[in-house]
Write a structure and sequence with these properties.
Shape: globular
Distance between the termini: 72 Å
Number of strands: 27
Helix content: under 10%
Strand content: 35-45%
Length: 544
């Protein structure tokens, strides 16, 4: 077979015409009107391009779930068992394997064996006594990244119009409208996502009906993940009930051989059963509209300052580079900013405020050379003070569940120990059952924003009705000041001694609350701050 190698992976995009036009008109010597338009093309980031190399055979990922505790392991250096915590030794040391039920080679050549039931064992392991056994869950996963053959170069329309007016000597006021519209923006969606099986007119929660049927029939006992492990992977939550016992249980979803009982998983591509399969596309879009206002005083009389305010809104489908799959606190779940949530066949449901949107932003800065009047001595002369203040709205955030849900099925497979879990790539947004005002409340201090988890439920068999970036985090503000004394030594040399004070009022600016429903310990609680506390520093500068 001859392959045409003259073109790139997705063909050549040869119509990237990027015109720019601008105009200015001076009404008089005090006022001018300016406007312009431009078409700008973006380029995929290196992370987006390199995602192709995340495919097999360039990369094979091995997942490791290990318990705490000390395990005897023979290293290549000592040749004798050394008792160290397994979770400090094993991660990031596996380099290859011969299969999901084969031998995993580690950098110091220590083998780790996995039997047919997926139970990891070390060299000399006695399954009865547990001596020399490596207890953990080792599973090889298969990641797949596909690039849309119709991929196009992202581009942005940008336009602006405004006026500038000097209403008195050294004072200039400016007002400007700025708009942008992004097209063909890069996004990433789940490939071969399972169909929504709910009947929207009923609604008939079909997965819940399967739950009831399995419960009525009793629970087969297959060699499956333990109850805690299963809950960690979201199986219990996805199917609406928790394991009733611990040990090797199966959530009533497998036969005695540990195989999943397939209930007609409706996927677009039958037989394609690949975990973490992603499709990289150029189907995103964005819009930005903003009013920008500023007042500037040019340096005169020892004083200059600038005051600026922006009122804006940014809307898009996805705000982050889809080339990355950085984790979001879970070892097997992509970051919510990088993969479109919900129904992959209707990405417009992800339309919402951009992750970086700030409705209001106010800032001002000044420099004032303190006048000395008739007292022009060396000690009093050369003092100045400068400051910078900013206040802005918080950024939006989405409440989501990082664990798999039935509505985001991309793999139905064995749920036996070592299989890597039942569902992959399964985070999504929940249903909201109360008003947005009831879902987000303020604490008695007025500083800590809390999200009420009781306002959200799992959308069994469907996609949640909660929109993207529905809530907004706390606002931020900060004042910085600087004091300086400049002493001129001669015509070519001077010495400056200054003191800078950052965050003068020691204002605490809170970050967004934890928005992952699976983190039951701190969901809805703000655990981080933005910026640091008040800090002062002295500085000295010699100019020559």
């Amino acid at each position: 077979t001859m392959v045409d190698s003259r073109h790139t992976l997705n063909g050549q995009d040869l119509n990237n015409f990027a015109p720019r036009v601008g105009a200015a008109f001076a009404i008089n010597d005090k006022m001018v009107i300016r406007g312009g338009y431009g078409l700008f093309y973006d380029r995929p980031s290196s992370a987006f391009i390199n995602t192709v190399f995340s495919n097999f055979p360039f990369l094979r990922e091995v997942e490791i779930t290990v318990p705490s505790g000390n395990v005897p392991i023979a290293t290549a250096f000592s040749g004798v068992p050394t008792t160290i915590p397994l979770n400090q030794w094993l991660p990031f040391r596996i380099i290859r394997s011969s299969g999901a039920n084969g031998t995993f080679s580690i950098r110091d050549n220590t083998p780790v064996f996995v039997d047919s039931r997926g139970t990891p064992q070390g060299a000399g392991c006695d399954p009865v006594t547990g001596i020399n056994c490596i207890r953990g869950n080792i599973a090889e996963t298969f990641e797949f990244r596909a690039v849309d053959r119709n991929l196009r170069t992202p581009y942005v329309h940008q336009w602006n119009i405004g006026f500038q007016y000097e209403f008195m000597k050294d004072f200039v006021f400016e007002a400007r409208y700025v708009g942008t519209a992004g097209q063909n923006l890069l996004i990433s969606t789940a490939l071969n996502q399972g169909f929504d099986l709910n009947d929207p007119s009923t609604p008939d929660h079909i997965f819940e009906r399967f739950n009831q049927a399995y419960l009525a029939a009793g629970s087969p006992n297959g060699p499956l993940n333990s109850g805690n492990t299963a809950r960690d992977r979201g199986l219990g939550k996805a199917f609406g009930f928790l394991n009733s016992v611990t040990g090797q249980v199966d959530l009533n979803l497998a036969n005695a051989n540990g195989q999943f009982i397939n209930f007609e998983a409706r996927v677009p591509i039958l037989g394609f059963n690949v975990p973490e399969a992603l499709l990289l596309q150029s189907k995103g879009n964005s819009d930005y509209h903003g009013g920008q206002f500023s007042l500037t005083k040019r340096l005169s009389g020892g004083l200059q300052f600038n005051v600026a305010y922006t009122f804006s809104r940014s809307i898009d489908i996805m705000s982050s580079d889809p080339g990355s799959t950085a984790g979001s606190g879970k070892p097997d779940v992509p970051n919510t900013g990088f993969i479109s949530q919900g129904d992959a066949r209707n990405i417009r449901n992800n339309k919402g405020l951009s992750d970086f949107d700030r409705t209001h932003r106010f800032s001002t800065n000044f420099v004032w050379d303190i006048p000395t009047g008739k007292y022009d001595s060396g000690i009093l002369k050369g003092w100045s003070v400068a400051g910078f203040y900013q206040a802005q709205s918080g950024t939006p955030y989405t409440v989501f569940s990082s664990e798999p849900e039935v509505s985001s099925v991309s793999q139905l497979t064995s749920v036996r120990r070592g299989s890597g879990g039942l569902f992959r790539l399964g985070f999504g947004r929940p249903n909201i059952v109360c008003s947005a005002g009831d879902a987000v409340s303020q604490s008695s201090t007025g500083n800590l924003e809390v999200v009420n988890s009781d306002c959200f439920t799992s959308p069994l068999g469907g996609f949640g009705n909660l929109g993207r970036n529905t809530f907004r985090g706390p606002k931020q503000r900060r004042l910085d000041l600087s004091f300086a004394k400049n002493t001129r030594i001669n015509e070519t040399m001077s010495f400056e001694l200054g003191f800078d004070l950052f965050n003068v009022f020691n204002t605490v600016n809170f970050a967004n609350p934890n928005n992952d429903l699976q983190d039951t310990g701190d969901f809805g609680i703000i655990t981080n701050t933005i910026g640091g506390p008040r800090v002062g520093q002295f500085r000295a500068k010699f100019r020559f």
